[in-house]
Amino acid sequence: MSKKGTGEVSILDMLAGTRTFNGVERTALKALIDNSKVHQINAGDVLFRPGDEYRNTIFIPYLGTMRLRRKTGMEDDVLPGEFIGLANYLDSATYVSTAIATTAARVLEIPADEFHLLERDHHSLFDALNRTIAKKLRERSRERGISSGILAQPVSSIMKSPVATCKKESSLLEAFQIMKQRKIGSLVITSDDGHMIGVITFPGLSEAVLEKGAGATDQILDNACQTAVALDPDTPIWEAEEIQRQTNARQMIIQERGQPIGIVSVTDILRRLISRPSALMTQIPQAASTKELHTLFRMTKETAADAQDEHHRPSAAVRYLSDTHLALQRRSIELTLEWMKAKGHGEPPCEFAVLIMGSGGRKEMMLDPDQDNGIIIQDSPEYKKESSKAWFDQFCKRMNKNLDRVGYFLCPGEIMARNPLYQKTISQWKKQISTIIQQPSEKGARWSNILFDFDTLYGNDELTSELRLHVFSEIKRNPKLLQMMMEHDAEGSPAIGMFNRLITTKTIAAKSKSKKNKTVEVIDIKRNGLRIIADAARIFALQNGVAVQNTTDRLTALVRIGKISNDMRESVSEAYEELLDMLLTHQIQQAENGEKLDKSINPEELTPQTRGSLRMAMRAVKRFQDSLQDEFSASLF
User: Fold this and answer.
1) pLDDT, tens digit (0-9, with 9 covering 90-100), for 26-35
2) What's the average model confidence in pLDDT over 450-463?
3) Of the residues 193, 391, 411, 601, which has the fewest C-beta atoms closer than 10 A?
4) H helices of 375-460, where?
5) Which class does domain 11-121 fall in?
6) DSSP-based three-state secondary structure for 117
């Protein structure tokens, strides 16, 4: 069949006009079409059914519509330009859905091997596929919907009501005066019968006046009306949070039968979450001994399970779990200070800040964190006394011992405050960091990939902030260390190889004492996935002076400053969420079964859908690592 398309519109123009291929270079689209064949099907025709062998083909309908029917009974419409058989392309598994034409349709069929080469040779096509992968991972995130807890409540339970409104005939000046007088940032524009037309915001007013040249008496409807993000009153809070994240809407309007009845913001959602602290968090400050704290530490598996149930996004659940760990560690430090006084050592001789590093500094701790900490001591004449140095040495040794008793095992690499390398004054810390940055080495790069995720665990945060500013200043003058940090990151490879095959390693495992050890093929989710994303985000953040520590926050900040595209952030963030969810679920199950915690997942134990999501996530990890190696190296030299 001719590839000219129907009428005067070519297949190339049809594809270019779809959401999937928007922004893909025409040369890439032409190559895609040239390496495919056109297949015309009638309404009711089926491309494949569950159980059919994989045909080594990617399908792309460009005219008409199709539908995917899953075994569960769920159905998804496939619009022109969307990929059919993407999961099978990634894992070569048999088909598990039915692809059926709902109208007469025309479909491009591209051999998988050819498509793989097209991905390699055309970066814009590669980006288009990764956007689709991010979308598929987001669809899986919606399947992690919450059925109970705070975020399962309807959004109407946290909305502000009534809504501030104005008529469509209102002028820009009138809208401005209403918002200024009421100290609000937006107004809902309504029709004469009270139905919502749109919204107007302060940024929208500014754009109308400064960019469009609108005057004060011009009507808002013609110059500053924006489409509102509208929700039904019974929309779960978790779904509202997800919609807000995807649309970047500062506020969402709750409407009933077309009329606005309330407004909700991200702040409202966060306020609801923090209004009900967990029982464990309320018990931690009351603990009178490390033994009591250890008992509470053993309850963190329940905290993790609750957090997973009550937070739609795994990163939020892990952050909540991390806050619990940090609270336990802070109380342990308080008990250490009490012990110092009880033993006659007295109060601290000068100001200090206990640092937490690595996953703790990023608030990304799982159920089995070790100790990565240090201490910054204020430059003070008092510290020059031997008695003061002895106080801090005794305090640090006791602190690390107490944390170990609570459940945070001693760091095998001795990255702890009791080690003189991590027990320094602010000036000594600065000198050590300057030396490492100015004289970069492989060892220094490894050290930096742990240390540079530091934050205040306890004490004077001004000391921590001063040290962070010093790091940024030194990195700006001497960026070569970042190159070595990138090379260290490259030592960990995403668990995906040629033709999207998952790469596993052999390990010895036993599920219980009653079973013999056996060799299984596993993937280290942290080393071969999460750590690679965290490393790349850290290096980009250090290069660009981004002060936030959390990986998700860093990715968002890197988009704001234009370092990475929003397309890149979306695919990497969704991959990060998927990997976090897998690891958190894995460790919760291990804890419940009384097994030793690890970060290794056996792909054969995953459902086909989850295994496909793992492939998609690892592909996004590989893309981010490649971006770090290509773009970052180019920016340095």
Assistant:
1) 999 999 999 9
2) 93
3) 193
4) 386-406, 426-438, 442-451
5) mainly beta
6) helix
